[in-house]
Amino acid sequence: MAASRSSQLAAQLYTLRDHLKTPADIAQTLVRVRKIGYTLVQVSGLPPIDGKELRRMLDDAGLRAIGAHIGIERFRTDFDNQVKFLHDVGSSYAAIPWLPAEERKDAAGWKRLAKEMTRIGKALRKEGIILQYHNHDFEFQRFSGRTGLEILYAESDPEYLQAEIDTCWVARGGADPAWWCARLKGRLDQVHLKDTVMLEGQGAVFAEVGEGNLNWPAILKACRSAGTKHYIVEQDLCPITKDPFKSLAISLRNLHKMGVK
């Protein structure tokens, strides 16, 4: 069953990591994702798996991979195999999802990382793959007046490093997701959508898109202006529904109501 190519919405498989432990789990979970209504996914949270095998499972479920999260260390030590995996699974985007704390403790560290990501991105571009960086909240620590994220994008080459802004983590870092999406115009092909809400006795928790406190009209307007192609729904934890499948379904429904197809 072929996946539709018309949708802009994708599910981040990391949301369902507890349901992706074995090949059988993966195949069954992908079918459930398609039944919810998604036709696109981003690959993350899976155990080691052959890219061609995963591509077969995606095809069987009627899904298409529009990206994958790959740690920077894998690019450093196993570049060729990471490229092969991306080609085999059919993804032309790869996002670095995390950085070791010891490498980002000062401005100099962020500048080194910016140069390194530019080099990796240039090598990937030769393979037809676009490199991105996915933020959390630690990037908003300031060094002589500039946040780590500002340094990263100022010191890297826009041609070889794109952003994969995570809206919720930007807000958790004390910044404005819409402002950041607008700032990265032309450099934001894909964005991560998740919400956050305050619960009595728990503080800030992750929430389904449209069920929390983020300003979605402003965020989506900024994304459209920035040229965003794919909106990727991710939820690190699902404390309200206790069910990541249900959470993905709620986010999809709400985004459809907001005009994202």
The number of helices is 10
Within CATH, the superfamily carries the name: Divalent-metal-dependent TIM barrel enzymes
Major sheet strand order: 8-5-4-3-2-1-12-9
Quaternary state of the chains: single chain
| First-to-last CA distance | 20 Å
Query: What would CATH call the architecture?
Result: Alpha-Beta Barrel
Largest sheet: 8 strands, parallel
Please, what is the average pLDDT? 97
Relative strand content: 15-25%
CATH topology grouping: TIM Barrel
Determine and state the CATH class.
Alpha Beta
Percentage of residues assigned to helices: 40-55%
Rg (C-alpha, Å): 18 Å
Q: Which structural class do the helices and strands define?
A: alpha/beta
What does this structure look like?
The structure is a single chain. This protein is of the alpha/beta class and 261 residues long. The protein has a single domain, classed as Divalent-metal-dependent TIM barrel enzymes (TIM Barrel). Helices cover 41% and strands 18% of the residues.
Salient structural properties:
globular; alpha/beta; TIM Barrel; 261 residues; 41% helix; two-stranded antiparallel sheet
Topology, pairings included?
Layout: E1 9-12, H1 23-36, E2 40-43, H2 51-61, E3 64-69, H3 72-77, H4 79-89, E4 93-96, H5 107-125, E5 130-134, E6 142-143, E7 146-147, H6 148-155, E8 162-164, H7 167-172, H8 177-183, E9 190-193, E10 195-199, E11 203-207, H9 216-226, E12 230-233, H10 244-257
Parallel strand pairs: 1-2, 1-12, 2-3, 3-4, 4-5, 5-8, 9-12
Antiparallel strand pairs: 6-7, 10-11
Helix pairs in contact: 1-2, 2-4, 5-6, 8-9
